[in-house]
Amino acid sequence: MKVKQKTFSVVILSFIFMFLVTYAVFYMSYYGFIEKHKKDEVEESFQTLDYILSNEEESLKSSLLDWAFWDDTYGFINDKNDEYIKSNLDFSTLVTLNLKMMIFLDNKGNLVYSKETGIDKAISKELSNEILLKNKQIKDIGSNKSPLLLVNNKAFLVVKSKVTKSDNSADTNGYLIFVREIDNKLLTYIQKTAKTSLVFNNVSVANDIYYKDFKSLNNEVKYKKGKWSFEAYKIENDVFGEKSIMFSIETEQTNYQEYYFSIFVIGIILQILLVFVIDYIVIDKQIFKRLSKLTDFIEYVAKTKDTSLKIQLSGEDELNQLADSTNRMLMELNSAYKDIKESDDRFRIIMEATNDGYLDFYVKSREVYISPEWKAEIGYEGDNGSELFKSYISKIHPECFDRLKEKFYKVIKGEEDSFTEEFRFIKESGEIIWVSQRGKVSEKDSNGKPIRIVSTLSNITDRKKYEEQILYLSYSDKLTGIKNRTYMENVFSELNGNKESKYFIIMGDLNGLKLVNDSFGHSEGDKLIYTASKILKEACSTSDIISRWGGDEFIIVVVNKDRSYVSKLIDNIKIECIKEKEYKFNISIALGYAEKSTEYPNTEAVMCLAEKRMYRNKLMEDKSSRNSTISSLLRTLHEKHSETEQHTMRIKILSLKLGKRLGLSEDKLDELGLLALLHDIGKIGIPEQILMKPSSLTKEEFDVMKTHTEIGYRIAKSTPVFAHIADEILYHHEKYDGTGYPIGLKGEEIPLLARIINIVDSFDVMTHQRVYKEALSVEFAIEELRRCSGTQFDPYIVQEFIDLINENKIH
């Protein structure tokens, strides 16, 4: 079928479809939509009515619960006292609660008392009789049963609750019933809210003409006072569970003629749109998509230059004939370019195998051809060879341009036939890469001058980065990032090879590194070394050469500068050390320098002199630096654990008194006083959250806490002034029976001073408050020392200490 016939058929079928759909829409709009709309209106009215009555019921139940769970009501059921009636059951109470009647019953359902107001006597009598006669059928509050009761076509809400005390401590002794009328005020509110009038009627189950399910409400349309209205009926259970109440509502009918007209207009519009959409879908599928497929195919072939492709279009029309013609044309082109493609593929495979690009440069015209892959890699621009040549030149890094230009000119002038150069390129993205270009003159003119140069291009960035990384690692210190000893030895070799060189060598040694390693661990020591290197970098100029010579030794080489610069540099290093506030103690670097001269003509001699001066400086500063460090560590411990300073002072006083009682020499008393101050120095290495924990330590936390003796031992050992009490610090938590830590020494294997400190320390801990305990009495502490005598403590020293406490009346 031809395209014109297909289009005509689509239009005819569309109009037939439009006619059938229009008929169906109007049929369903009148008999379906309007009928459903009527039912929705009735259902919405009944839902609103149910909601209003439910709210009224909840309000009544809330009031009832306040009275039923009241101790006075409970007492009234029991003794029927007049005071309760006089105080609570007057008419104003019923008016306030909006009640028509209150009824009090005992557990057997007998009437105890009732109160009513504002209700017709005949209705009151019938209402009371109904409730009293069938009160057992009235479900207690909380059930889902209807609370409605109809008497002489007047509707009442009746709710019932058990009576008990306010705290539910007593058994139920009766029931309380509230009765509220659905009066004209509420009916008016219903009419205003639900937009419908409500009437209650008594019915019997036998009268099933109105006995309908909610979803099949009995309703009819009536014409009153010039308006159409719906009248609908619904049966409800009464408070006794009987289907005896009929709701009758009447609501104004919507003007369906307007709806009908609106639906008619909307239907016509929808039909027109539907026909348009259907026509578009059919024509698009049969014509446009096929035409688009053919167009896309031709564009794809033009882009990929793949003439071996073919296209298949369904149908027997003009578009199918056009597709066949296109396939025949591509077949001819494919045959014509086959040899060219094979040759080009061979060359491309060779270049891909080497991961290289190629460049063909025509000297006289200043034009260049670059392989497509390499062109895309670098981001060259230019519509012709001349613009491409300019783009190529512009992307050579400025620092490499002159060198590359000089090499090219030599080739162009005929001085050289080939070249190999490595240089940097700036890609279009801004990334800098390294390129290796190897070229050769491929064609010359009659005078032997080059007219064509062919070269290959290779990306060697990874190789260059690897070489730079190897060079950096071999010449850099891993911890500090500054140069290492190997690099500095190469510098020394260059300086020794240049007899005219002028230089100073500064040697530095970091003070206190071993003490920090022993106190805080090697990670903190590494951090101190790094900080020292940072200080040196900040103090030196960029032309100064800084290196880490050994563990805590640094070398600075200052070239072509005078002695005043070196002196100022050393002062700046000391100032930077003072400025550094990351540690609790002052960082100190011992420094010595020497200058190349006729007496010291090479780096070895200059280094030797600088080292001697450095050690001389270290001897002068070492003692004060170490003592300053220890003082700083003690200050840090006291700041970290506020109890420690007071604790150590008390232990020192008591220990010296006990030592004198035991007859210790003056030297031993001096050691004992120093031990009292430093026995807990190792706690500086314990995390603060463990040290100051207010509750008991876990096993893992206690294992960490026990390491403070070993940390303290290392600190003391690293300081000659305190090395003689290192063992006592290590063993001051050993127990007399061998169950202590760190190694379980027993009896007199434990140093005497450690045994003394253990007793005094334990006594002070018991008798003073800590974050995790309250202070105990001295009497309790003495009994505890006696109890642990021979197990934890030396029994002889314990007895001497107890006598000391009693004689001096220590509290």
UniProtKB/TrEMBL annotation:
Sorted UniProt keywords: Membrane, Transmembrane, Transmembrane helix
Domain PAC: 419-472
Domain HD-GYP: 622-811
Source taxon at top rank: Bacteria
One cellular component term from this protein's GO annotations in UniProt: membrane
Pfam family, one: CHASE4
Keyword Protease: no
Sequence ranges assigned to domain GGDEF in this UniProt record: 501-634
GO biological process: signal transduction
Residues in the signal sequence: none
Transmembrane intervals: 7-30, 259-283
PROSITE patterns: GGDEF (PS50887), HAMP (PS50885), HD_GYP (PS51832), PAC (PS50113)
Domain HAMP: 285-338
Annotated SMART domains: GGDEF, HDc
Protein name: Diguanylate cyclase
